[in-house]
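Retro notes, item 3 of 5
We never archived the inputs for the fe (iii) ion complex last cycle. Fixing that now. Sequence and ligand:
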Amino acid sequence: MNENEADHETTEREDHDHEHPHSHEADDPDDLKSRTRALQSLLLEKGVISTEAVDEVLHLFEEEVGPMNGARVVTRAWSDPAFKERLLTDADAAIAEFDFEIGQQHVSVVENTPSTHNVVVCTLCSCYPWSLLGLPPTWYKSPQYRSRVVREPRAVLSEFGLDLDSDVDVSVWDSSSEVRYMVLPQPPEDVDDLEEDELVQRVTRDAMIGVERLGDDR
Ligand code: FE
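Structure as it came back at the time:
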């Protein structure tokens, strides 16, 4: 965790000197929300955009961007070992093979195995791979989750209904403006019986954050 905390501090310091593409100010969801609302009413007032256009963009972000993109990436990794290797080595490059934009975010993908479990947090604010998972859930942004999942990950996961055996190692990954983590879950037991489209539907946002497991109930 120390390394990532250091990342945050570096970013904060840099922000004083120049515009950082992923400053934490811009990442604060509440701040972003109020700024977005202000911008929206201004644009509507000036007649630059219509409410229909705004609704369309919101719909795109909520329904189509995420977490569908992440689910497609996960599903391909399950069926294509070479892609999985590329994904775990250099996620940005591997995800660029898809037809959606990852933007300027740097993403790193960590793989669950039967004996290891990964869970993602942003301890400082709410850094999140938006291009893959869409909008972050409210609990992800809560101070309770952000502080507790680091200190007592098993207890927090248990509250999500995920009770891990004591022999499963838990790794907590602290996302930052520099790198945003996504979990590659274990496939469900019946992976071989399902078509790709069906598999995509089975990959949940929570599994890609790491508060749920799809395969081997532990
Ligand atoms: Fe953050």
